[in-house]
TrEMBL record:
<feature type="domain" description="Aminotransferase class V">
    <location>
        <begin position="262"/>
        <end position="631"/>
    </location>
</feature>
<dbReference type="InterPro" id="IPR015422">
    <property type="entry name" value="PyrdxlP-dep_Trfase_small"/>
</dbReference>
<dbReference type="InterPro" id="IPR015421">
    <property type="entry name" value="PyrdxlP-dep_Trfase_major"/>
</dbReference>
<dbReference type="InterPro" id="IPR015424">
    <property type="entry name" value="PyrdxlP-dep_Trfase"/>
</dbReference>
<dbReference type="InterPro" id="IPR000192">
    <property type="entry name" value="Aminotrans_V_dom"/>
</dbReference>
<dbReference type="Pfam" id="PF00266">
    <property type="entry name" value="Aminotran_5"/>
</dbReference>
<keyword id="KW-0663">Pyridoxal phosphate</keyword>
<dbReference type="InterPro" id="IPR010970">
    <property type="entry name" value="Cys_dSase_SufS"/>
</dbReference>
<protein>
    <recommendedName>
        <fullName>cysteine desulfurase</fullName>
        <ecNumber>2.8.1.7</ecNumber>
    </recommendedName>
</protein>
<comment type="similarity">
    <text>Belongs to the class-V pyridoxal-phosphate-dependent aminotransferase family. Csd subfamily.</text>
</comment>
<keyword id="KW-0808">Transferase</keyword>
Length: 643
């Protein structure tokens, strides 16, 4: 809104009034919405008061028609008008130098001078970026009179002048302070909160006292889509700003039951960054075609993008060749592929397969079915009460009949990180092949197949911030080429006659039919995203977040943490005394916190730990300590109700 300046150098009264009313309309409801600076139009008593004061002060010449007209003995000046108020100089008349709104500010103020001794600058040009205001505005210090708020209010009160929404006894400011003080903006310590007075002494809920809140301390590093590789290398492993990372995930801006979504179901599936969503949309907008078969531009684009994604998986796992990367639907399909190809071909009655007690059903059922069908023996590596693999017991299971060891690198139910390299070495020493289930590990730690040296490794894209329906099977190239095809049809053959069929080598040999092209490309984008953040930085940040959450969870009596291995990733399985797991899940859902409750497709390990089901929050790098606080707070509320 602009104000017209009269030829006497003052703003038009109607403009001023409109300006004031715009301001009042923007104020909360209890404040007056209309004022008039003209006494006969004044609708509000306090507005009238101000208007009267202004008019009285300005009425130097009773013959003057305009109430704000400058007396003839004052040099007209161009004044600055901006923001909420009127420059003090507007209200400064005659040689007295007195200001109506700043009655005490007059001393030493020289209207002829550009700079007053009270610090008021007379800027003759209207400059919106350098506003000069008459009403004190803490947001607009630049160029304002150097008066304390207190002195302004006391001078107003002294002179019986009030701002429109002030009362005589308490300033708006004081009222506001009082109102704010009565609002509980913090998660205060409660009497039953264990942080009160025990060893830790301090609450961990807020920044300063939180030894693990790297996400809140590290505002100095920008990560997300906008960082560059140099920055990341510099800070990798030291700082991680989860708040910024969160912004890359549009779904994390959702609200659930009116609360911001806290996604703690990452072991089931992860959320997708914008870059992955955009990449898939781009494919359908610009590249969509079947691959390999057609000799046209879009087929070439689609084929290039699909094979580029395979390159990305290869680099991500540090495989030796792209021929070692087979696109599958996910970890489940990868395991089934190995069971129904290599397993069918090579295992015979009396042979033994070893799995661990920690396995997901996906790494039990295919082997159990094969064992039942072929008369194989399925043997199980036991775990201790913390859920850790017992390596010496494993050593006892290995023998000359052992043909395969299939185990998970991270347990989806307990979070246990298994000693993968050791397990592989021991299996190979016994002459067995090894399959690693990497479904829960690839998103939390560097998984290097040349270092770990398994024969196969599987993972799912949707647990790695990529799309569902896509994943990868890594296999040693020679081994893959020795394996019979999994499914058969188009795409996997070199030549077909009714007499004989020649198959492609890996990976095409295992990719019969039209694959999930768009989602393979989306998985490539997810790998790009994770690689940019740095998997080591992710692992380190999540480690602190897990420690933070574990520590808080352990403080709640009635919580039984299930899975307390020394080396853990992401998962916090627990039961809460007095509540079913579903009740806990529902209470958390009410607060916007998504956790999984149930057996997590890992019944053998839960039964080993003496339970049928658990509540399972599982963390990812976009989770923050504030998310953990919301979760912990809800559990405290539940606990308070029962005991
Ligand atoms: N293994 C583990 C350890 C898992 O956590 C999961 C998924 N929960 C799977 C295998 C199966 O993954 P998917 O359903 O994506 O095939």
């Amino acid at each position: 809104m602009s104000t017209n300046i009269n030829n006497n150098g003052l703003p038009n009264i109607d403009d001023l009034q409109n300006l004031a009313n715009e301001l009042f309309k923007a104020l909360p409801n209890e404040f007056p919405k209309e004022i008039s600076l003209s006494p006969d139009k004044a609708e509000h008593p306090r507005a009238t008061k101000i208007a009267e004061t202004i008019l009285q002060t300005g009425h130097v010449d009773p013959l003057d028609q305009h109430p704000l007209a400058i007396p003839s003995n004052v040099q007209p000046a161009q004044h600055s008008f901006s923001g909420f108020g009127v420059s003090p100089s507007v209200l400064n008349y005659g040689n007295t130098g007195a200001s109506a709104l700043y009655p005490n500010a007059g001393a030493g103020f020289d209207p002829q001078s550009k700079n007053s001794s009270s610090g008021v600058q007379e800027n003759h040009d209207l400059n919106i970026n350098d506003p000069h205001t008459g009403f004190h505005d803490i947001n607009l210090n630049n160029g304002s009179p150097q008066l304390s708020e207190e002195s302004i209010f006391s001078s107003l009160l002294l002179n019986n002048q009030y701002l429109p929404f002030q009362t005589q006894n308490s300033s708006f400011e004081i009222e506001l302070q009082a109102a704010l003080a009565s609002v509980d903006t913090q998660f205060k310590k409660r009497d039953d909160n264990p942080f009160n007075g025990n060893d830790s002494g301090a609450s961990y809920y807020f920044l300063e006292q939180n030894p693990f809140a790297f996400d809140r301390r590290s505002t100095d590093i920008v990560v997300g889509n906008s960082f560059d590789a140099k920055e990341i290398n510099l800070y990798k492993g030291h700082h991680f700003n989860a708040e910024l990372v969160k912004k890359d995930f549009p779904i994390l801006r959702e609200t659930v039951n009116g609360k911001p979504l806290v996604w703690f179901d990452n072991a089931a599936t992860t959320q997708k960054p914008q870059s992955v969503i955009d990449r898939i949309a781009y494919f359908y907008e610009h590249e969509n075609s079947n691959i390999h078969r057609a000799a046209h531009e879009l087929a070439a684009r689609a084929s290039d993008a699909y094979e580029a994604a395979r390159e990305k998986v290869k680099a991500f796992l540090n495989a030796s060749s792209v021929n070692e990367i087979v696109f599958v639907r996910g970890a489940t399909e990868g395991i089934n592929l190995v069971a129904s190809t290599w397993g069918e071909q090579n295992l015979n009655s009396g042979d033994e397969i070893i799995v661990s007690n920690l396995e997901h059903h996906a790494n039990i059922v295919p082997w159990k079915r094969l064992a039942d069908k072929k008369g194989l023996k399925l043997r199980v590596i036991p775990v201790d009460d913390d859920g850790q693999i017992l390596l010496d017991e494993y050593a006892k299971l290995l023998n000359s009949k052992t043909r395969l060891v299939a185990f998970t690198q991270v347990s989806n139910a307990l979070g246990t990180v298994t000693p993968a390299k050791k397990i592989v070495e021991m299996a190979h020493a016994a002459g067995a092949k090894v399959l690693i289930d990497g479904a829960q590990s690839v998103s939390h730690m560097k998984v290097d197949v040349q270092h770990l040296n398994p024969d196969w490794l599987v993972f799912s894209g949707h647990k790695l911030f990529g799309p569902t329906g896509i994943g990868a099977l890594y296999g040693k190239e020679d081994l893959l080429n020795e394996m019979q095809p999994y499914q058969s049809g188009g795409n996997m053959i070199q030549d077909v006659t009714f007499e004989e069929i020649k198959y492609h080598k890996a990976p095409n040999r295992f990719e019969a039919g039209t694959g999930n092209i768009a989602d393979a490309i989306g998985l490539g984008a997810a790998i790009d995203y994770v690689t940019k953040l740095g998997i080591e930085a992710i692992g380190q940040y999540e480690h602190y977040l897990l420690e933070y959450a574990t520590r808080l969870l352990k403080e709640i009596s009635g919580v039984r943490l299930i899975g307390t291995a020394k080396d853990k990733a992401s998962v916090l399985s627990f039961n809460l005394q007095g509540y079913s797991n579903d009740q806990v899940g529902q209470a958390l859902n009410k607060e916007g916190v998504a956790v999984r409750t149930g057996h997590h497709c890992a019944q053998p390990i839960l039964r080993r730990m003496g339970v049928e089901t658990t509540v399972r929050p599982s963390l990812a790098f976009y989770n923050t300590t504030q998310d953990v606080d919301t979760f912990i707070k809800t559990l405290w509320e539940l606990k308070k109700v029962k005991f």
